[in-house]
Amino acid sequence: MKLSRLPLALILASPLAQAEFSNTSYSFFSAGAESVHYSEKIDNFGGIDVESDFSALNIVQRSGGYTAIDDRFGFFIKTASTLIASEESEDWDADGFSGSVQQDTAAMNFQMLDINLAYHLGNGGYWLAGVHYQKVSFSRFGWENTDSTDAFADAVETNMRADTVLVSSVQSILDGEVLDSNGAPLQLIDSAGNPITTLDEYFEAVRYNPEDTLDVVFEDASVFSISGGFEYDSYFANQGQGLRFIAGSKVSVNIYENLLNSTTGRSLTRSFGGGMNLNLTAGAGYQFTPEIGVMAMFEANASWRKKIREDLNSLEDNRTVELPDNTFYAYALTGTVFWNF
């Protein structure tokens, strides 16, 4: 009886041995589609709240790998980028108005780099801590008026005329009381180069008319963050043939931002306190051998960035430059290949 139990014990022990934790390096590459969603919120545009809405489906890639350091530690390097950005319509809605008050065509690119140190718990789960970099770039063009544009422009002009501080400032310029950097009276001119001499001419020159006054707009928003999170990957618990699962989340807090928008004519920077980012990952697939496997991966990224404002206060340029609050969401579904050789 003792001898007959020995083969059975070996059979039972074999899968248990395969299921032992193993801190093993690997690389991966994936490609697929990503749905991006972006909105900006302007709290006071001529006294009216305005919000944009943009959505598009892009072709993207993910690549990177994991390197084991010892039995418990290792590090991940992961990259993401847009390969083909779709051009879609962007709508701008204003409080109190039915339908959008302006439209444009936009395209958006998303890039990301994550470098994280991993500490393994020995059961497939591991804690993550590291740095997160991302850049959201977009271009806007093809501005168009809508059925609500004229009514919106009238409301903005009414609010501007009721702003006594604004009217007083403009009148001071028209009266020659404000000097330029050369000590000469500052002269306002319209888009045709004609001098503005009255308040009515000023309000006519600045009237809201995106179709005739707005050009192509570009923006690059680069963010560095510190991140932390937790993931589970069944590969570290069992590298034998069979199903493989991944799930996890990371949160990062911005520590440095650099934003360049063509409408501001300069870059704006900010350290700490500018926003946060969230990353969620889930995947399921099949591990053919310890060296190669495939998975379908779902990844969600979300970013919230606060308004950034800078008062230039110089003789050459005394503008207040401001970029609004914005929210970015991206949902990617990709096919992924893992290898270890």
Characterise the protein shown here:
It is a single chain. By secondary structure, the protein is an alpha+beta fold. The protein has a single domain (23-143, 218-339), classed as Beta Barrel (Lipocalin). The chain has five helices and 14 strands. It has helices at 2-18, 149-161, 164-174, 199-205, 210-213, and strands spanning 26-45, 48-68, 73-84, 87-94, 102-120, 125-145, 217-233, 242-261, 266-270, 275-289, 292-305, 308-311, 320-323, 325-339. Strands 1, 2, 3, 4, 5, 6, 7, 8, 9, 10, 11 and 14 form a twelve-stranded antiparallel β-sheet that branches. A hairpin with a 4-residue loop joins strand 8 and strand 9 (266-270). The longest helix has 17 residues, at 2-18. It is elongated.
Low-pLDDT runs: 1-18
What is the count of distinct domains?
1
Which structural category do the helix and sheet elements fall into?
alpha+beta
Count of discrete alpha- or pi-helical segments spanning 4 or more residues: 5
Query: What does the largest sheet look like?
Result: 12 strands, antiparallel
Shape: elongated
Return the CATH class.
Mainly Beta
Instruction: Please give the CATH architecture.
Output: Beta Barrel
- The proportion of residues forming helix, as a percent range, comes to 10-25%
Could you spell the SSE succession in H and E letters? Answer: HEEEEEEHHHHEEEEEEEE
CATH names the topology as: Lipocalin
**Terminal residue distance:** 44 Å
Q: Give me the count of strands.
A: 14
* Cα-based radius of gyration, to the nearest Å: 28 Å
Compute the average pLDDT. Answer: 89
Corresponding CATH superfamily: OPCA outer membrane adhesin/invasin
- The portion of residues forming beta strands comes to over 45%
Signal peptide: 1-19
Keywords: Signal
